Amino acid sequence: MREQIGRVLRRLSGSRQATIDTIEPGSIMVSPRKPIEPFDVAAITEVLDLATKIGAVLLDSGTGAIDTQTQIKFVAGVYGLEDVDVDVTYNTIVVSARRGATLPPITTMEQVYYRSMDFTRLAQVDRLVRRIRDSFISPSTAHQMVDEIITAPHPYPHWLATTAWGMMASGIAVLLGGEYLVAALAFLTTVVTVTVNRWLNRIGTPVFFQQLTGGFIAVVPAALVFAAAERLGVQIAPSQVIAAGIVVLLSGLSLVGSVQDAITGAPITGVARFFELLLMTGGIIAGVGVAIRILEAGGIFLPTITTTTSFEVVELPIRVVAGAVAACAYALASYAETRALSVAFLGGFIGTAVAAASTFTDIGDVIANGLAAAFVGLIGGLLARRALTPPLVVAVAGITPLLPGLAVYRGLYGILGDQTLDGFTWIANALAIGCALAAGVTLGEFVARSLRRPQLPPRPDWRLRRRIALREDREARQAHAAARRARANRWRPPPPRR
What is the CB neighbour count within 10 angstroms for residue 15? Predict the structure, then answer.
């Protein structure tokens, strides 16, 4: 029995490592290359520019500052730059290569002006770093590959991504206890929200006002249908539709990256990301509040919120599957690769199942969500490594169904309804749940990375370096001999005339 369990765990974890696993300091040998001469300014600048471009794509996709810094150092070290200083902040990457005590350092800088969820781009950069590690590709070739990755269009059309956002909202609505009408209304509301926000982004509207607009749109259709429910002969809980819309708006924020930076040793970047998270959440709250006030002025009053996230035993399978569908739909909406969709589905299934099982205990929402996120980070991280998918994809998608959209709306409703103490209590509860989700998934990912830590290569470092140095010297001698023969042939006197 023990052997069978061990065999299953080995098949689950697989034998492949994520790129960030294989570049842990001291874990494996860096692919040896010939060191760049300190006087070769062009070669040093080319390598630094390549490393900063790769780091910009990673930071743009939500990767933590420490992981981004590690991969930049790794890429520079592969090409022969070992004495490199890297500074990764909220939207700036500065890389400096030291050239000794007598020469000034060479520095490059890259700015990240926006953050877009494109998981395919993240996976392609991950594979590029693997090729740089395993193959002897030149910096110029790697530059062309990075430029192609950056300038390539999204792998899916906009209408498919918009439909995926709607499917995600429907899954969240069912997870919160809604039925077919609630799921359909959440789908339509989210499609309208995403379409309007995409147009606002195209004309350069700040993200805060996009979030405000999204919060406003999330409330109005549900309130109008609720007001006409008697005439239509239907029953609807508008809080479920509104909460689903809030979760969709919250899912695009860098919750995991902000807490991960604060935990792993980048507090300045973590504080900056967390402040951005609070500001964007404030835009959602402002939009919902404005919509509620306008509706009340028009005579439409939303009901008192009674919906909770507790699970009934009979409804447990449906809600767990709905959470998994929401996670898979979020991965699709964020342009994840096809191989990552099934892993995201399993991550959402695991997180929702653990959170659902925790509701039958007395551990509380904060601990329950943190525990569920830890399982997502651990098991989802192992599955991601087996599918050659960046673990960040599974981590973000797996905790998306657990985001506290209902707690945010409940807190705002209490503040606007003269229940200030209860409102701020629910807002604080939502903030605690969000931090628990991010901290839990970071802990699970750390454990997964420790389990899949690669072993040292059996061949000594000096022997491999010696073989490559001998091969490079042989190639240099052959090139020198060929050049000497070419010069001799060029200056050879012409044969005498007969």
Answer: 10
Nearest to 365 by CA among 428, 417, 302: 428
Reported as a single tens digit per residue, the pLDDT across 257-295 is: 777 777 777 778 778 888 888 888 888 888 888 888 888
**Structurally, how many domains does the chain consist of?**
2
Q: Write out the two tokens for 399.
A: 């905790």
For residue 314, the enclosing domain spans 158-451
In the chain, pLDDT over 70 holds for what percent of residues? 80
Structure tokens belonging to residue 41:
């300014």
Cα 117 to Cα 416: distance, rounded to the nearest angstrom: 33
Residue 304 sits at the vertex; the CA angle it makes with 299 and 308, to the nearest 5 degrees, is 145
Domain assignment present for 140: yes
- Cα–Cα nearest to 368, from 329, 404, 411: 404
Nearest Cα neighbor of 273 from 283, 285, 286, 259 is: 259
Residues 119 and 250 occupy one common structural domain: no
**In the predicted structure, residue 495 carries a pLDDT above the cut 70:** no
CA atoms of 365 and 309, how far apart (whole Å): 9
Q: What is the greatest pairwise CA distance in the chain?
A: 116
